[in-house]
Each structure stands twice: as structure tokens, then as C-alpha cells.
Amino acid sequence: MSLSTLTARQAHAQSVRKRSTTIAIISTTVVALLIYLLVPLAPGWPAVKKSFFNAEIFIKSFPTLLEAFLLDVMIFLWCAPLIAILGLVIALCRDARSPALYPLRLFGAIYTDVFRGVPVILIVYLIGFGVPGLGLSRPWNSPYIWGSLALILTYSAYVAEIFRSGIESIHSSQRAAAASLGLSPSDTMRFVVLPQAIRRVVPANMNMFIALQKDVALLSFIGPVEILRQAGVYKSLYANFTPYVVAAVIFLIITIPATRLADHLMSKQRRERS
Amino acid sequence: MSDLKLVDVHKSFGDHKVCEGINLSVHDGEMVCLIGSSGSGKSTLLRCMNLLEDIDEGEIFLDGMDISVPGLDPQPIRQQIGIVFQSFNLFPHMTAVENVMLAPRRIHKKSRAELLLEVEALFSKFGLADRMQNYPDQLSGGQQQRVAIVRALAMQPKIMLFDEITSALDPELVAEVLDVLRQLRSQGMTMVLATHEMNFARELADKVCFLDGGRILEAGTPEAVFSNPQKPRTQAFLQSIL
């Protein structure tokens, strides 16, 4: 008896699953078809197509733009570890509990407030143009140094807040267990709290670093010929916007897999914790 | 020597008074059981003894030295008074053996190699020899709690405090943890237990204290407290659980 009811249930579940898949496929096809048919009807479409989706210019500019993108990757690679370290230091400043360390705490709070409160591009301008304006000699007037510093300062403020939320998410019983063994507060932080906190915020930090990879393009405004600036050069050269589309595609090649990975880690963690 | 003496200890959280004038002596080699309903102040009292909580009034003496003096560095004291918690509180990112070795390595500055022998001996003594390399989430509740006990013992404390250490365990795992306590008892470890295991307390305790509303309402030998309770409140409590 139970066998037949079970199969009836399974059959029902299967038909429900099948039906939702079919509906999803149909609705997606309809929307895609509508876009494909309707967009070309717009009066400006031929002009947009010519200036944004020119296949010839796409192929011609792709290799150079990919090369220029390597500069973005390099800037990212030296900024990322410094951001992680500085972010951790700021987070630890904000977590300082002894009254003697109150100035550190205050510094941490002001730091995160200021750098999270100002648009990244403004920090890039202010530091990227301001500091070399002091009349520093080469190589200390390089926009690479000061542009990178601007990114490091801004992003470490966000990363610090992520680390701090990780530190606060560790249950007080862990600190109590460490304290009860006679471990010092700094040993407790170093061996018990931080290793757990850092693991817990890996997905959140990955999202920050994906955002950083995109924001490296902001340095184009103060000099370095990275992908965005190189695309601008091509735009003027060909009088065509296709190079910008190429740049967008190149960014997506990196950021989409990274975003998927971060999402995957995030949902895996949610499952583990529930 | 390991004597612990509490004199008129008061502790409150905000307006809520948790300990109201506790007097208690634990002598060398004794096992003292604190019994009473949840919220009667047993856990808080244990946490005060190992300075996880500051007391508001009163004194706590360890071997005649007042350890409740405000401003005293708690770390050296806690190293001498081990505590095991209801919820194990193992460090989840470390293997069992790393959990146990962390504090002795950092505090006693012993090398891994010289510690490993001592620690291995402790693990095998409590039937955990094959569990040293496991992470806490790979262990049963009973095994985790035994590792937590080993972790506290590895600091070679003078006194061990146990805060309802079997309350979070499945019934069939309680016995293996109580066996560990039995073993410690027979070696003469000085112990204070907050517990709901009345049969265990009756069998092994030197002294049983019934706590109610932050006071020790009745104290004495297990025989006196369990078989011949004087106060109506004690009688009611024992009746409700036995």
C-alpha cells in the first residue's frame, strides 16, 4: 500500500518540477525574442549598433585592451594584500578594549567613518593629485603609488568593518573558554577568535575584492594607461564606442566567475551554520 | 594544598541578584556538589570562583590568598582553577590535541614535543587516544566534553570546576563523562560541580549544597541533604526531581 502512494507522490512531484521548468523556458524565450525583435525597431538602433557593437573594431582593439587590463590586475595584486593587512589592523584597533588603548579605538572609528563616507573617486583625486603636488621627485610622484594608496585607504575601511563583524560574530563562550584556561587577551584574539572570524568573513571579503578589481579603473583619471584609459584612446582614434564594450566584456570575464564563487561560498557557509 | 573559601559573596547583574551572601569552603581533595533549579545561581557562582565574573562584595580565598581583590591579574589564578562548561566550548578550528595543547604551550612555554607525551597520556587515560587528531565536530558530545576536561586538566590546575557538564548530552553519553569525574575523584582532585545528576552527587560528593535564589539554603553530607532535608524548599526540590 505504502509503495503505491509513494510512487503517486513521486509522480506528482515530478510533474510539478517538469511544469515549472517548461514555464521557465517558455517565458525566457519569449522575453529574449521580444528584445531581439523590438530593440532593432528603435529609431536610433542602426547608429547605436554601428558605434557600440562594431565587430571589426572589437577584434582590432581586443588584444591591446587585454594587455592594458594586465595593468589593472597588477595594481589589484599589490593593493589586495595591503588592504587585507591594513583592514585587519584597523579592525583590531576598533576592538581594543583596554581604556589605555582608547585613542586607537577612536582612530579606528574615525578612519572607517571618513573613508567609507567619501566617494572613492574623490579620494583618488585628492591623494592622486594632492600628494604629488607637494613637489616630490621621481619615483615618489608616481600616480601608481598614490592612486594605489587611495584604493588601499578606502577599501581597508570597508574590509576592516567586515573583519570587525566577523570578530563580533564569535560567541562570547569562546572567549570565556580561552580566558578560563588563563590565556591572555592577545593570545585569545590571536589563536581563538581571529582564526574563526577570518574564515567566517572570507565570502564577504571576496565581494569587496571583486569591487576593488573594478574600481582599479578609477586610477585612469589620474594617469595610468590601464584598460579604461586605453579604451578611451581607441574611442577617440576610431570615433567609436565599441572599445568600451570590449573593456566591459574583459571585466566580466574576470568578475562573473569570481562573483559566482563568492556566492557559492556564501551559501555553503549559510547551510553549514544553519 | 588546594583550598577554596568563599566568604559572603554577592553578585548581581543589574537589578537581578544572583548570589546573595554565599559562604562555602572546599577543602583539599574534596568534591562539593551544588544542586538547585535552573537560575538558582550555581553557574554564576562557579564563574565567580574562576574570576570569569567579578564579584560585587565578599572575598574568595585560594589557599588563603584573597583572589577577589579588585585589580588582581586574573590570568595566573585561572591557570590554577580549571572550568568545564555545559556547552563544551572547544575551539572548533583546532583538532582535539591542539585544543588541549594551546594553553600549556603559550603559558608554560613548553615545546610541542615535551607536551605531546603528557597530553597523549591524558588522552589515553580517558579513552580518547584515537581521537586526538579529530576536530570537535567529528566527535560525539561525550567525546567533546571529555576533550574539554582534558584541556582543563592539561594546565594542571589545583581545583576543577564543572558547570552542568552532562546537561547538554544525550542520556546514553552521560555515563562516559561521569566516569571521568569518578576517575578524577579517586585521584584526589579537588572539585566543585554544579549538577543535576543527583545519584552521582549522592554517591560521590563529600558535601552537597542546595542553592535557591542566590543563597545556600542547605548544606551538608549527601546523606543529610538527600535523606533528611530540613527546609521545605529543599524537600520540594528533591521531591520534584527524584
Layout of helices and strands, plus pairs?
The complex is a heterodimer of chains A (274) and B (242).
Chain A: H1 2-38, H2 45-52, H3 55-95, H4 102-117, H5 120-130, H6 143-169, H7 172-180, H8 185-200, H9 202-215, H10 227-238, H11 242-273
Chain B: E1 4-13, E2 16-26, E3 31-35, H1 42-49, E4 57-62, E5 65-66, H2 74-78, E6 81-84, H3 96-107, H4 112-125, H5 141-153, E7 159-163, H6 171-186, E8 190-194, H7 198-204, E9 207-212, E10 215-220, H8 222-227, H9 232-241
Parallel strand pairs in B: 3-8, 3-9, 6-7, 7-8
Antiparallel strand pairs in B: 1-2, 1-4, 4-5, 9-10
Describe this structure in words.
- The complex is a heterodimer of chains A (274) and B (242).
- Chain A is built from eleven helices and no strands.
- Chain A has 274 residues and is mostly helical.
- Chain A has two domains: 2-41; 54-273, Orthogonal Bundle (MetI-like fold).
- In chain A, helix 4 (102-117) crosses helix 6 (143-169) and helix 10 packs antiparallel against helix 11 (242-273).
- Chain A is flat, with a radius of gyration of 26 Å.
- Chain B is α/β, with parallel strands linked by helices.
- Chain B has a single domain, classed as Rossmann fold, CATH 3.40.50.300.
- Chain B has helices at 42-49, 74-78, 96-107, 112-125, 141-153, 171-186, 198-204, 222-227, 232-241, and strands at residues 4-13, 16-26, 31-35, 57-62, 65-66, 81-84, 159-163, 190-194, 207-212, 215-220.
- In chain B, helix 3 packs across helix 4 (112-125), helix 3 runs parallel beside helix 5 (141-153) and helix 5 (141-153) packs parallel to helix 6.
- Chain B is globular.
- The two termini of chain B are 36 Å apart.
- At the A-B interface, helix 7 and helix 8 of A face helix 2 and helix 3 of B.
Q: What about the largest sheet of chain A?
A: none
How much strand content do the residues of chain A show? Answer: under 5%
Distance between the termini of chain B: 36 Å
Determine the mean pLDDT of chain A.
Answer: 90
Q: In terms of per-residue confidence, which ranges of chain A show pLDDT below 50 for 5 or more consecutive residues?
A: none
Largest interface: A-B, 17 and 24 residues
Determine the CATH topology of the largest domain in chain A.
MetI-like fold
Helix content of chain B: 25-40%
